[in-house]
Protein 1
Amino acid sequence: MKEKQLQYLWMGSLFLQNRRKAILLMPLFVLSVNAQHVLTKEYHAPRAGDRLIKQQMEYTGSGEDGDSVCWDFSNVEIKEEEENWPVDYSALPDSLFAKIENHTRFVYNDFSDSLLLKSNENRLLRMDYGNPVLEMVFPLSYGDAFSSTFHGTGVYSQKYVLATQGGSESRIDAFGTIILPTKDTLSQVTRLYTLKNAYISISSDSAEANVISGQHIVSEHYQWYARGYRYPVYEVSATTFYKGARPASIQHTAFCFAPSDQRLLPDTLNENLAREDSIIRRDMRQHDVIRYEVKRHGNQLTLTYSLKDQANVKAVIADAMGIIYRQNQQTHPAGEDYSISLDCSGLKPGKYVLYIRVNETVYYEKIVI
């Protein structure tokens, strides 16, 4: 079997606000810490009946690891010439479920707190894992890791014998904020990194199949999970095919799972989380004139407010040094459902302060653009 055929086989199985009140508007140092999001089965395990669309993107790398990272993929372009990949999940008997992606069917065992890959097949091959691939463990938070070994046998083109074995290591290597190609900015994002080493061989005779002498394949896979969304919002992979001890070729992929598409899934648990996180609320207190909400959608930041008395309301976006980038103001009598919009297009991604001045009183909120 040629090496390119082995690469095809592998690809088919692998890819398949801290709130305060101030009296004066002045330069302010803001220390913003991104809350760590824990991946739990309740909020992030795949569900039967869900359907997603993976948009193929240009590969630009995986970015940094560590805490409070800001990954900016806002300028990554969609690969218009490439077909998007639908991903469908369905239930099977005996605690099994299937995922169909890139014309390949993957069968998983939903075992307690783990997801185990038992088999994968398409029109050319079938691979059954005697020792399944451990693909996910719940719960996971920053610094957590898990690993496993696997081996399996299969058939290619109904006449060749396949054999594979290897190991994988996964860990939560980063958390922070991600800016997607869709221009959505999501905080409380956790990144799962998986390194997989595998040897795969093919022979016309099962007795001749020698996995260790087969082709060595190393894949690095990154998935970004955001609070309020069940499935990753972004993922990238780099797969290296070795010839002997030297890399023969490298293949890269990148995909975006648009938040707008994920919000269409009937997922009440995550809908409630996303709704809470997209809104900053301040209720009216005894001496307050204003009650407000701050919502962000794409590049638009909207302040919606109600007034107890007539007031001049000014909204300002500035950095931690007090440099003003956007501002708008209005004067209204007592009433409800007033709003001020600020266009954040062109602002450098990062952390800012939204100041809300109501007559002589100033409130502020920490935001990420």
Note: Helices lie at 3-14, 41-44, 259-262, 268-277.
Protein 2
Amino acid sequence: MIRTVVLDGGETLTRDDRYWASWADWLHVPRHTLSALVDLVAIVSE
């Protein structure tokens, strides 16, 4: 009998690409540049 269900709330259930794309547009930088910077910060902070 299954008593617990665990869901991953990451890219499976939510997509944040529109969120970051709106920031890139507001900052007037290319979307892929902001995406690369966010990825770099995530990697360095680990």
Note: The first helix runs from residue 17 to 27.
Protein 3
Amino acid sequence: MRISEYACGEVTLLQMPVENAGLITPQSTLLDVVVARMSAPHCMQLRNLAIASALNPEGALHREISSIVGHIPHMSNAADTRQLAAQCKLAVSSNNEITLDLLRDAGLPLAIAEDLIRRLMAEGPGFEIGTAMHQTPTLDLWALSVLERTQPTTVTADVLTLRILQAFSQDVAIPCVFVEASQRVRFSLSSEGDQPVKSLIDLAVAIETTGHRQREICRNAYEAICVTHHRTSENQLWPQWKQCDDFCWTNGFANADGPRSDFYLDAIIDPDTAQWIRRIDPVGAR
């Protein structure tokens, strides 16, 4: 959803005078900030107010942004103060204000940071990051929004949303492996909540969903997930999943005796679906 599509009560804020410094305060919500900045995207006063408010540890805006930052234990400097500061700036910045250095400070690998900048530039002027983090700030909420769709969204649009989640230290990879003995495919995810993601995958791959009106929607979404955690370099998974026999593991949970929050979903699939998964998920097809 674009800012221009918000309800009338929210859009009226766009007409408020820029001189009103009260548009953005440390107690503003992320939506307040995005809508206020959209009213005058080139206004340095509003930009500076937004950044200062986001960085204020006593403010509601800072707490809101902090609450949507993921915690990936094997990601370097996951809880670093500098990284959180960069993520606060990202949340309130316009597309053209995003720099490679800022994304690197936020913890993104170089290839992913470069890809996100290219995708933001392709969108033109706007506040894609703040909008995405207000609407679908976690993988589960994004998956829930997919399940609520009535029309397919382009893979490109979903990849941008998932890249943004990565910039906020969220693991969006859902690697899979084929279990040849049973002719099933096993999906893995490290997640605190997983039901929307499981439902998305079920609709995308299970035999009984053939002809289901949401199958194409969910297939496009799963393809976006594969694009997001592959194709940054040859056979790379991000953030650093690895395959062991018929399982995928995050490096943080590589020891079977250690803590695990993965789920494994076995879905019976037909040959056409198997071919589709092997096409879009080259690592899983190894």
Note: Confidence is low (pLDDT under 50) at residues 1-18, 74-79, 252-261.
